[in-house]
Amino acid sequence: SPWAQEPKRHELLKPASKRPFNAEPPISMLGEHFYTPNELFYVRNHLPVPCLKAEDYELELEVEAGAGKPKCTFNLDEIKKLPKHTVTAAIMCGGNRRSEMTRIKTVKGLSWGAGAVGNAKWSGARLCDVLRAQGVEPDERLQVIFEGADLDPTAHPFGASIPLAKALDPRGDVVLAYEMNDQPLTRDHGYPIRVIVPGTVGARNVKWLTRIVVADHESDSHWQQNDYKGFSPSTDWDTVDFSKAQAIQAMPVTSAICSPMPEERVKVDKGHITVYGYAWSGGGRRIERVDLTNDGGKSWHVAKLEQENVPDGRHYGWSLWTVRLPVTEEQQTKSELEIWAKAVDSAYNVQPETFENIWNLRGVLANAYHKVKVKLI
Ligand code: MTE
Ligand code: MO
């Protein structure tokens, strides 16, 4: 069975599906660590986890279009000998928070909560160094295709692609990573090498990377062509034409309340409750502000942010936030409270208020205000 060699997982990872393994941690724990502990980092696998040995590992680079040496290969030692670069980047699944969108109307996909995201320090060789050493030159028309060692039943590998411009941009910080938070990658997260494409939807961060192709077209994989794309709320499975929509690359601004959890009983302390969570935007956009309300938007409270001190445009890590929210006497007597969070990024993009107008049949890009109902005690 292809599933016989699956790795052991942390018992706190709650599986949304077991084969392939897909799981997220309890979000209250996510919000406690700026760097998500590796064993609690969500796992999103489409296929069985391949068993790769460091000593046999080989990465193939093919330049099919544009300038550059047509073919070369690298073993693990050769990749590790290149200058080591470290970048903090959050990886978020395109379907993060899908379960909230489903409440409006059913969507197709794994029912993720707000935990299909994690933030880590990734270290490895810069893809721009590797490409430039092979003579690859900037060309706006070209794409870089990545293939994993995980094969579907018809022997097609998991694949994805990004524009060559992102891959060659030193400020794009694309790395061929062999370390996650200073530890070797675990099998679930792509051992021995995965590509990290900071600011870009999880699906392009190909794990168990075995082949890179510079081409004049996008990856022809199912996941690039017929998945991970957004559509109008009126598009249904009879009318959808996947060839007409752009593959998701950068993600829109989002946030989530990690604590309190829905339906939690929260103790009011001196007329306040403590609320914390995460916020993130794609494309390297820094989080500028996170606003909270517990009275349906009549009054807003600005959260305190914890974030890396790196320039905007290259701010790939998430921001954690915390706020002491005042609770009125009247709210305390009612005992039920609904908290809303919305984040604002450095381009002043704001989360949409509700899911109604951003609903899409695959349940991706689910970034409306995060709303949590709690009980006060
Ligand atoms: N890479 C390969 N080879 N196979 C996969 O199934 N899943 C992708 C991406 N890279 C996937 C992959 C998706 S959809 C996401 S969201 C992220 O990996 C998840 O990364 P993680 O499991 O390390 O959290
Ligand atoms: Mo994903």
Q: What topology emerges from the helices and strands here?
A:
Elements: E1 14-17, E2 22-24, H1 27-30, E3 43-44, E4 58-63, E5 71-75, H2 76-81, E6 84-92, H3 98-102, E7 117-126, H4 127-133, E8 143-151, E9 157-163, H5 164-168, E10 175-180, E11 183-184, E12 194-196, E13 209-215, H6 222-225, E14 254-259, E15 265-266, E16 272-280, E17 287-293, E18 301-302, E19 304-306, E20 319-326, H7 329-334, E21 336-345, E22 370-376
Parallel strand pairs: 4-13, 15-22
Antiparallel strand pairs: 1-2, 2-3, 4-5, 6-7, 7-10, 8-9, 8-13, 10-11, 10-12, 14-16, 16-20, 17-18, 17-21, 19-20, 21-22
Residues 41-47, 91, 93, 148, 150, 158, 189, 202-203, 205-208 line the site of ligand MTE.
Which value, in Å, is the CA radius of gyration? 21 Å
Strand order of the largest sheet: 5-4-13-8-9
How many H/I helical runs?
Answer: 7
Roughly what fraction of the amino acids lie in strands? 25-35%
**Could you tell me the number of beta strands?**
22
Overall tally of structural domains: 2
Shape, per Cα inertia axes? globular
Distance between the termini: 51 Å
Low-confidence stretches: none
Summarize the helix and strand pattern as letters.
EEHEEEHEHEHEEHEEEEHEEEEEEEHEE
Bound ligands, each once: ligand MTE, molybdenum atom
Major sheet characteristics:
5 strands, mixed
Helices and strands: which structural class? mainly beta
Mean pLDDT: 98
CATH top level assignment of the largest domain:
Alpha Beta
In helices, the fraction of residues equals under 10%
Give the full name of the CATH homologous superfamily of the largest domain.
Oxidoreductase, molybdopterin-binding domain
At CATH level 2, the architecture of the largest domain is Alpha-Beta Complex
